[in-house]
Amino acid sequence: MGNIRWKITEQLGPKQAIKSLRELLHDQWLLPNRYIHYLRRRHNVLVNDCYQYVNEPIHPGDQVKLRFVGDELRTPDANDYVPTPHPQLQVLFKNRDVIVVNKPRGQKSHPNYHGETGTLMNDVAGYLNGSAYMVHRLDQETSGAMLVAKNPVVVPVLNRLISSGQVHRQYLAVVAGQMDKEGELAWSIGSDPTDKRKYMVGGQNAKAARTLYHVIATNHQYSLVRLRLMTGRTHQIRVHLAHAGHPIIGDPLYNAQPAPAMLLHGAIQELVLPFTFQRKEIQAPLPPYFHNFLVKYDLVR
Length: 301
Description:
Helix content is about 15%, strand content about 30%. By secondary structure, the chain is α+β, with helices and mostly antiparallel strands. It folds into three domains: about 5-70, RNA-binding S4 domain (Structural Genomics Hypothetical 15.5 Kd Protein In mrcA-pckA Intergenic Region, Chain A), CATH 3.10.290.10; about 90-165 and about 275-285, Pseudouridine synthase, CATH 3.30.2350; about 170-265 and about 290-295, Pseudouridine synthase (2-Layer Sandwich), CATH 3.30.2350. Strands 5, 6, 7, 8, 9, 10, 14, 15, 16 and 17 form a ten-stranded mixed beta sheet that branches. The chain has a four-stranded antiparallel beta sheet with strand order 1-4-2-3, with no helix packed on it. Strands 12-11-13 form a three-stranded antiparallel beta sheet, with helices on one face.
């Protein structure tokens, strides 16, 4: 059968009402059909340590074990990141399936070409001894919480949780001017035909985009804003705020006024853990330069 590389073992709760093993795997654990087919074909799904057909019933208290072998589950998400030393890596949370780390401003989330090093995913791969699978990313100049899968099994599960709004981040940003107390920014976003680095409202191949915001503190010059993405377009927060007339302080692409650092931080990772579906709220502490700016301009609340 080959060496077992990944195991998922869970005990069903005493009140967990499930009709069949297939219902558990697909509807509750959110495994894609190709994984269920793999487990069935390889006889790698066990209930109470015995192989069971996926259409058979299961019961509260049963132990369900999934076994995955080798590289048969490799996907485009399973990039080969060169592991690198990670002395500065700040781990905010980890369990069997995921790890959440605090990305510093100025570090790329992932390599752009094979063999590239110096990115956060290289550091995470080093920390995890080579097994790291990207789920989402942060812009290079954005700091904050970033979720990474520790095995390929959970990547499609996390993608489905993100699509359904059960996994998301809250951001903090300092913007120019005084914003209304709260609201929604709902302009479609596409690429900027005049600058391949940038995006714009109503640009090429524009797609719907929604950002919710709430002003935490404000003065005559700046506003500290909490933001939540309802969609996931590239540069969405940066483009929406700039189009609203309140660009992020230090944004090198969308704010003409230079500043030492972009003040956009992924402050909270709200997460539903795969398989157990326990809810977690993981906070990423503000970088010192961000906190110092808030103190200097009396935006601390």
